[in-house]
Amino acid sequence: MSTTKSVIISCAGIGSRLGLGQTKALIDIAGKSLIRWQLELLDSIKDIRIVVGYQSNDVIKEVLKIRKDAIFIYNHNYFETKTGASFYLGSKDANEYVIEWDGDLLVHPEDVKKCLQMDQEYIGYSDKVSDESVYVKTNNEGDVLSFSRENGDYEWTGPACIRKNKVKYTSGNVFNQLEEYLPMKGLKIRAQDIDTYDDYKKAIEFIKSWQKK
Amino acid sequence: MTKFIFDLDGTVTSQETLPLISKHFNISKEINKITKETIQGNIPFVESFIKRVHILGKLPVDEICELLEKTELYPQIICFIKKNKKNCVIATGNLDCWVEKLVKKIGCLSYTSNANVENNHVTKITQIIKKEDIVKQYKNLGEKVVFIGDGNNDMEAMRLADVSIACGLTHKPAKSILTITDYLVFNEEALCRQLNQLL
């Protein structure tokens, strides 16, 4: 897979479960907005595509401080749809391979590199860290066999890399888009996604853990 | 085939053309006020256009045409247009007699508003472009239409296009178009990257 990849960051959601009153891209974690953390870690990627919806003007303003060359994609139906719709919109006119990156996801810098260098389609997962999650079941090689809301071996966090033309429209979640292509290569990473206030506190600790080294 | 329809002022040119004319002829105050209100959508485009032509039409057409030929352009966008000449068209509300040399320099097909000229002055507007009609025309031919614009008068064309890209290269795009656009870019490189991905 020598073709250029696009990274799609979905920042359209309301972030209602977190309860901080703003979209997750803009929450402050250890002195920086979440989107800034992501963009700094993804600075080697040329085609950065940010899907915006709720608080789009504020997200755009923040992104432009870091990446003037980002392409913004509007999910005007952000209230009625989930991340799957944002991923579809972001992928539609992107490069041949697209990496889905949730706007609420923090990945350890060393593992970000792994994700970007991986030369095939994959699904990223981590040890179980969050409160309310979707889990993945894997085989001995670490390939992802299924997703489950109830139980699994690891937590589905993303990112996921897939060929653009496989991304079909759904108003549901990204894992629903991936299900039909299972089994897929798995990539275990250190990651923290932020759905609840408890996840938010864990994210601050997570950043501290890699900053210490 | 994909057809790229570009707005001219502030999208392909890095300077707005009407303020350029008014500055040259020292009538900036009058014109800028109308232009600003139009971009923001406070005055309907057609009304604003007629008002502006009423003021600028008294000025020598050849001098305006030569002046606008020197309008600064975005080099990477021009490069894309020249490379994909058959896929690209310009749609501008500007009068044909004013932008003739400028669009010739850009090198692709263009659609403009039209006027009668007598004794080097505009005497009558004969047609005011509706950019959405150009979009319809190409869609009816079975083309995939991409519209690139920044102003309130691009709204309907962007709504009808298969893909719409709002441009914040020269100034902030009109708020109205942000409620319907698919994409938004603030940088020439980003725009050209997206255009190439749409080819």
List the helices and strands and how they pair.
The complex is a heterodimer of chains A (213) and B (199).
Chain A: E1 5-11, E2 28-29, E3 32-33, H1 34-41, E4 47-52, H2 56-66, E5 71-74, H3 83-91, E6 97-102, E7 105-107, H4 109-117, E8 122-126, E9 135-138, E10 144-148, E11 154-163, H5 174-179, E12 186-188, E13 191-193, H6 197-212
Parallel strand pairs in A: 1-4, 1-6, 4-5, 8-12
Antiparallel strand pairs in A: 2-3, 6-11, 7-13, 8-11, 9-10, 9-11
Chain B: E1 2-6, H1 17-24, H2 28-39, H3 45-56, H4 61-69, H5 75-83, E2 88-95, H6 96-106, E3 109-118, E4 121-127, H7 131-140, E5 144-149, H8 155-160, E6 163-167, H9 175-178, E7 183-185, H10 188-198
Parallel strand pairs in B: 1-2, 1-5, 2-3, 5-6, 6-7
Antiparallel strand pairs in B: 3-4
Helix pairs in contact in B: 1-2, 2-3, 4-6
Element-by-element helix/strand order of chain A: EEEHEHEHEEHEEEEHEEH
Tell me the fraction of residues in β-strands of chain B, as a range. Answer: 15-25%
Mean pLDDT of chain B: 94
CATH topology of chain B: Rossmann fold
Report the span from N to C terminus of chain A: 33 Å
CATH topology of chain A: the name is Spore Coat Polysaccharide Biosynthesis Protein SpsA, Chain A
Explain what the structure shows.
The complex is a heterodimer of chains A (213) and B (199). Chain A is of the alpha/beta class. Chain A has a single domain (5-124, 159-181, 192-212), classed as Spore Coat Polysaccharide Biosynthesis Protein SpsA, Chain A (Alpha-Beta Complex). In chain A, 28% of the residues lie in helices and 28% in strands. Chain A has helices at 34-41, 56-66, 83-91, 109-117, 174-179, 197-212; strands spanning 5-11, 28-29, 32-33, 47-52, 71-74, 97-102, 105-107, 122-126, 135-138, 144-148, 154-163, 186-188, 191-193. In chain A, the strands form three sheets. In chain A, strands 1, 4, 5, 6, 8, 9, 10, 11 and 12 form a nine-stranded mixed sheet that branches. In chain A, α1 (34-41) runs parallel beside α2 (56-66). Chain A is globular, with a radius of gyration of 16 Å. The N and C termini of chain A lie far apart (33 Å). In chain A, 46% of the residues are buried. Chain B is α/β, with parallel strands linked by helices and 199 residues long. Chain B has a single domain (2-198), classed as Rossmann fold (3-Layer(aba) Sandwich). Chain B contains ten helices and seven strands. Chain B has a seven-stranded mixed sheet, with helices on both faces. In chain B, β6 (163-167), α9 (175-178) and β7 (183-185) form a beta-alpha-beta unit. In chain B, α1 (17-24) packs antiparallel against α2 and α4 (61-69) runs parallel beside α6. The longest helix of chain B has 12 residues, at 28-39. Chain B is globular. Chains A and B meet through α2 and β5 of A and β7 and α10 of B.
